[in-house]
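Our consortium's second objective concerns turning raw sequence data into structural hypotheses that experimental partners can test. To show how far this objective has progressed, the report includes one record in full. It was chosen at random from the queue rather than selected for favorable results. The single chain below, 222 residues long, was entered without modification.
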Amino acid sequence: MGYILNIETATKNCSVALAKNGETILCKEMAEQGFSHAEKLHLFIEEIIKEAGITFSDLSAVAVSQGPGSYTGLRIGVSAAKGLCYALGIPLISVDTLTVLANQLQIENGIIIPMIDARRMEVYSAIFNAKKEMIREVQAEILTDSSFSDIDDAVYFVGDSNEKAKTILTKSNFNFVDTVFYPSANEMSAISYKKFLNNSFKDVAYFEPYYLKDFMLQTKST
């Protein structure tokens, strides 16, 4: 087993991690107000390979966050991952972005709801149990005061939507974890390793990010 390079660019966090046997060896990331993925991603990849004392030929696979998330961020990450896989002749692994976000939180009991901001009161969300098993699929939804109101267990919200969610999600069992904002490639390591062992690979030529919503270009009226 060689190394797996993990790439996470679905949100403002440009994140790259090198892992072996499911354990992160090195991780470089930067979350900025403005997206810097096009500038930082390839630099982080090159730095990690150099600092680890390996070459690109030592990679066994590349894993990429598949979305949902930023259209531009996902395109940059997926394009880089596919380029490396094609050039090196190695498998491509995709990892659900909200699963990566949920895996940053450790709880013994309750429900984890990772949310990624989709502007205004809309979010991308999924629901996980304490074992990090997805119990409700990814959805794009508009938050209201009745969102998740049918859940009586302790709920832990993580992600970059917490500030706006706090204003409307006020049930006493709702908890907002304000130390986890963005998904990180660090949490991809164990997930991508399991997928590697199960030969869960994507077609490099045809794989596309999971945008969840159609990307729409806005044009100015004339």
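The partners drew two points from this record. The two ends are 58 Å apart (CA to CA). The longest helix spans residues 71-88. Both points have been shared with the crystallography group to help prioritize constructs.
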